[in-house]
Design goal:
By secondary structure, the protein is an alpha/beta fold. The protein has 2 domains: 171 residues, Ribonuclease Inhibitor (Leucine-rich repeat, LRR (right-handed beta-alpha superhelix)); 149 residues, Ribonuclease Inhibitor (Leucine-rich repeat, LRR (right-handed beta-alpha superhelix), Alpha-Beta Horseshoe). It is built from 6 helices and 23 strands. About 11% of the residues have low confidence.
Amino acid sequence: MRATAALLMLLLWGSVALGRARRGERRGKARGGTRKGTGKRSATECKEYTEAGQTYLDCQDRHLTAVPTGWRGQVDHLILARNKIQTLPDNAFVHFKGLKSLDVQQNQLAGIEARAFAGLNQLTTLLLQHNHLRLLSEEALLPMPRLAYLRLYDNPWDCQCQLDSLVRTLQVPSKRNLGNYAKCAEPPALRGRRLKKVRPELLCPELEGNVLQEPREHSLDRTPIKSHLDVTSICHTYAIPTPFLDCQNRGLKSVPADIPSYAVKVDLSKNNIGHLKNKAFLGSKEMRLLNLSSNGLQHIDTDAFAGLLYLRELDLSNNSLRHFQYGVLEDLYFVRRLALGGNPWACDYNIHYLVYWLKLHPAAEHSGLVCRSPAEFAGWTVHNYVKTYNGECPKDGPMTRDATLDAGTRNPNALEPGDQDPGALELNVKIVEDEKILLPRPLSGPKKYEVIRLT
């Protein structure tokens, strides 16, 4: 009996100990899981690369909800675009004090604390566009004395008293590249006004001393009428590693008039731009790559590419182009790649200008230049078509009466092989006699001259 009781006590104690061990194991796994979740915020999962001697840490599209931590190396440029970061707390970039540029666009940013950028005294470029920011104080910019480029557009800025210090900072003449294109979303009276141009006293009219106010008629809820497309509200811009404007598949029917002058790459593909008008890119002097493919483009004005002196790549593929007007390509001195495939090129006299330009610019690689019409040249390369203009004309054979009265019927007066037409012989004799008359004749004799001596 005692042995049985002892055995039961041992079994009970063993089960209790086993339960404790399992609970401890589960707690350990939970702690490990937490560390793993935190690891998703680690910078070690980002991609590091070097370009032109500068170190880039690319953390785009990582579903990050906070600034990554744990990085110990030197980073010059940090890319956090297209994540899910909602706030930037104080000292958010304490591990990246040597940054020169910071890209936090296309997140869900709704708040930035005053000391969020503490320690970034080398930063020159800050991208905060395409977020949910309504307020930002001037104090947040103070830790960045070298800041030269600040992008704030496509945020719902609330232009009231709390934004007064930021607006006044942006309007300092020496800060001409801070906050360009950013606009007020609230209040209704100021909706659509640019932060760089709105009168600061209108943000806090109730404060003592702000006696200048808008006339009463301006207090109505009026949304300004846009005279042209606002590229900053419909396209995405990237500054790292190369300034890039992405307007792909935005339903555009014309080239936006306010393409940023600093854009190096511009993608306007998959829109509905059927006509390129003169001087469409006049202010885009830094552009090196332009993509206009898949637009249904039918016509390009002669000066459409004026100003694109340094353009290197031009993609016009998959459009409805049949030829270029004379002079269209004259501003493209340094183009090295020209994509022309997928267009219904018409091989007639109008295509010669394009071939002539390509011949004068042998460094420009091109592709897709194939005839679509007329039917007899369909499938030919344009270059082979142009060669037909330089071929020798067929030589005329001897004149005979071997003519047909109609298809498949032989002329009864036709000569048999070996016969000679007397009429033709008579004609040849007359031609020879006429040629003799027209031949130059020698002088009949030496002409004598009289010499007169003058004294």
